[in-house]
Structure formats: C-alpha cells, structure tokens
Amino acid sequence: MNSVTRIPLTATPEQHARLLALQTAFAQVCNAMSPIVQQTRCWNRVALHHMVYKTLRAKFPALGSQMVCNAIYSVSRTCRLVYQHPTSPFNLARLAGKPLPLLRFDQNCPVYFDRHTLSVKAGQLSMYTLDGRMRFELALKPEDEVKFHDMKLQEIVLSRRREGPFELTFSFVDATAIDPTAGQTDGPELALAPSGAQEKAPSPSVLAMGMEIPEYVMVEEAA
Q1: Which of its termini does the chain have fewer beta carbons within 10 Å around, N or C?
Q2: Collapsed DSSP state (helix, strand, coil) of residue 157
Q3: pTM of the predicted model, to two decimals?
Q4: Neighbour count for residue 199 (Cβ, 10 Å)
Q5: String of DSSP letters for 72-86
Q6: What average pLDDT does range 113-132 have in this prediction?
C-alpha cells in the first residue's frame, strides 16, 4: 500500500528566501544536465551519474554532493515520464529517430530530498539549504506519525505553487510489501539500477493516473 502525506511549511521571510535559493540552484543543476541528455539520449540514473557528477560538483559547489545526486534523480525521473510514458507526445516511438526535444526546468521545479538531506525526529524537521541546516517544528497528526514509524519512506519532495507557501510531500510504501530482490524503485534513497539500457517506464500506478507533462518542465522541440 502506498500513502502520501503533505505538510505545509510555515516559513519566516528569511526561511522562505533560503528555500527559494535552494530551489533555484536545484533547477540550474537540472538544466545543466538537459543538453547532455538530449545529445547522448541517456537518462539512465546510474549512467547519467557517471557522466555528469564530477562536472556538476565542480560547477555547482554550493549545492553539495548529495543534492547533486538528487538533481540527477530528478532529471532521470522526468525524462522517463517525457520520453518513455506511452501517452507522452514526446515518447521515443513517436519521435521515430528524430532528435530529442530539450527539457527546461522552471525555477519553480520541485526539490528532491533523502535521509542525508532531510530528517524528522521528535516533531522537528531538519533540512539542507545552501546556507546550512534549517529547522521547522512539525505538528504531525497521529496517523502521520504511524506512517513515519511503520512504513518505508520512499520519496521526499519540496514544492510550492507560484507565489504560494512551500510544502513537503512524503511518499510512503508498506515496508512489508517490498520485495528485496526486485531491484530499483523510484526514490533517491534506494539502490541504483545497473547501467546500460534505459530504466523501466513508469509503474502501472503512474500509468493509471494518466500522464501530463509536469507544469515546471518546458519542452523545446528540436528544429
């Protein structure tokens, strides 16, 4: 069973500015990868990591090593949606050998976290920013506390609507239902798949919801 918990962040103006700066830097790293994906036609998470990690760390030292890894995950994840989803207008089969379109990530794109960059303990949230850790008090509902205790945290996403407050989305999976021999799942925290062929298309649960190009991604078709 999958479950999602959304928690709005009550941020001071200074905290909001720090989150904006992190979101902008994350988008810049994603956009630095997009031309490489377009040129190489590679968005396998492991292969892309080996291809770009050192260059990105040198170019964006302020973001930190783990957040660069999470940006690589974000690009790989988005590319699987845009280039592999059966209903995407930019699916590889529909392109029929034409050049890949270029993906542009808006400054409002979501930021992915993992257990190294965000933690929740005793009602307090600690999260990475460009200027060090930032902390928030969390008033979790009893049912949410049960999720953090009994379920496996699969994905953590920081996002916001334009001109709106930030919120964190925690995606959980039933730990007892996870097959340890199944290989990679989506979250940044889990083991990476072997390099080589592109990663699998989105799961049946994603397909069932239908597919729309995320609003924070602009697709520029090749001339």
Answers
A1: C
A2: strand
A3: 0.84
A4: 23
A5: HHHHHHHHHHHHH-T
A6: 91
